[in-house]
Every structure is written in C-alpha cells, then in structure tokens.
C-alpha cells in the first residue's frame, strides 16, 4: 500500500506540474503576448512578468516589442526631371498593436516584410517622382525622407505597426546614364565657374577704374597745390629781391655780377669758354671797381 501511495503521489505531482506548466507563462520585457482561446484572441499582455492562462483551451503568441528593421533591395525610380535613379532604402518599425497585427498580417515576419516592400516602394516612387536629382542629392533630402516616412506610416498603421524611420542608404545612377549625367554636371559646373570668373573680372575692373580715378584726382590736387606753393615762393623771392634792389642798387648789381662770375668761372663750369669783346658789359666790375668796394677788400 505504501508503494502504491508513493506512486500515486508522484503521478499527482506530475499532473499538477504539467497543469501549472501549461497554465503559467512568463512575458519577457522585450515581448508582448497575445492570448488565444481556440484560435480566437481574448487579451493582450504588454507588461513583463508572470501570467496565467487556461490550460489546453488557451495558447499564447509572442510579438517583439523592439525596433525591427527591413532592408529593401535596390529599386529603379524615375525622378521629377525624368532621370532614372537606383534607390537602396531601409525601414525601421515596431509592432504597437499585436491584436491588429495578428488579424491583418499573421504570425510570420515574411508577410509584413512583403507588405512593407510594396508600401515603401510606392511611397518612394510617388515622392521622388516630383523631385529633381539635385534635390535628392542636396540638403532637401531630409525633407524628402520625412514625406516618404509620413506616407509609409499612414499606410502601415492598419497593420498595427508604427514606422520609426525610412532612409535612402544609397542612390546610384544607372550605369548607362552615369557618364551622360556626369558630363552634364561638369558642363553646368564649368558654366557657373565662367559666370563667377566674369563677375569677378567685372568687379575687379570697376575697382581698378575707381582706384585710377582717385589716383588721378589726388595727383591733380597735389600738382595744383604744388604749383600754388611754388608760385607763392617765387612771388616772395621776387619781393625780397626787389626790396634788396631798392635798398642799394649798385651793390645789388655788383652782387648779381659776382654770382654770374662764379657760375661762369667756378669749379662747376667744367672748362667752358666765353667769347666776349674786351669792353663787354660783363667785365665792367673787373675794370671799374667802385671805391667803396675796394675799401671793403674785394679782389
């Protein structure tokens, strides 16, 4: 009897363990759980911890709460300026409504990735179809990606997911169009460079002309001032000479003659010759020296 009781107790404990194992379940902090009863959703558990369910009749499905990603293959799109571009994009999303996700998508990841591929591709074609190539390659790219993300998010909400980000990872020109596009871009840059150089040359010419005009004005004013000062100096010199002449006419004539002799016969005359008659007025002070001058010791 004791052996049978022991065996029965072990079996009872095993049954209780199986019941508890099928009743209790743990929700991880990175998961959210949908409880199904005979395949019909009955509740959603989003908080982590230990939970219970009815054994046998109820089962659970786990969905990831973390940020999920989907990398799209390269897609060829036609831009607003009719240029073709191969776009390689990626999407970041998370499941925010497990019940709606289960009802519209199911359990597997492949179904939602297929739907996202269609949604993102359509949004890329719609938005990029209205933008030129230069806008896609410039600072407007952030605005373009915001428009794409908004459109994808509006369509993805019906699947119980929320789009966190959509980004263009790489944008390449088709191989057959690359060289032609590069040639056009080079021609455009050369045209802009020529215009910049022409504008610079025009500004430089204006600056040089203005500087030359100012230089001419400054030189003319300086020359005029110099002529005025020279004229005033000569006027003052003539006045002084006139006063000296008026004080002693004879001495003034003698002094001017001495200056003429110094210029003619001095060291700076460089051996020049004068052809004059003996009675020339130039030598009158050599032959007729005034008495007062002799007394002063003039030789």
Folded structure, characterized:
This protein is α+β, with helices and mostly antiparallel strands and 299 residues long. It folds into three domains: 49 residues, no CATH class; 112 residues, 2-Layer Sandwich (Tetrahydropterin Synthase, Chain A); 58 residues, no CATH class. It has nine helices and nine strands. The termini are far apart. The model has no long low-confidence stretch (mean pLDDT 79).
Q: What layout of secondary structure does this protein have?
A:
Layout: H1 2-23, E1 24-27, E2 31-37, E3 40-45, E4 49-52, E5 58-64, E6 68-71, E7 75-78, E8 84-95, H2 98-104, H3 109-128, H4 133-136, H5 141-156, E9 161-172, H6 175-247, H7 249-265, H8 284-287, H9 291-295
Antiparallel strand pairs: 1-4, 2-3, 2-5, 6-8, 7-8, 8-9
Helix pairs in contact: 3-5, 6-7
Question: What's a quick, concise take on this entry?
Answer:
The protein is α+β, with helices and mostly antiparallel strands. The chain has three domains: 16-64, no CATH class; 68-179, 2-Layer Sandwich (Tetrahydropterin Synthase, Chain A), CATH 3.30.479.30; 238-295, no CATH class.
The low-confidence runs, each spanning 5 or more residues with pLDDT under 50, are: none
Any idea of the CATH topology of the largest domain? Tetrahydropterin Synthase, Chain A
Number of helices: 9
How far the N terminus sits from the C terminus, by CA atoms, comes to 176 Å
Q: What percentage of the residues does DSSP assign to strands (E)?
A: 15-25%
**What composes the largest sheet?**
4 strands, antiparallel
Overall geometry comes to rod-shaped
What's the pLDDT, averaged over the residues? 79
Rg is 56 Å
The CATH architecture of the largest domain can be given as 2-Layer Sandwich
The CATH homologous superfamily name of the largest domain equals: Band 7 domain
Give the C-level CATH assignment of the largest domain: Alpha Beta
N-to-C series of helices and strands: HEEEEEEEEHHHHEHHHH
Number of strands: 9
Overall structural class, as computed from helix and strand content, comes to alpha+beta
- Helical percentage: 55-70%
Number of domain units: 3
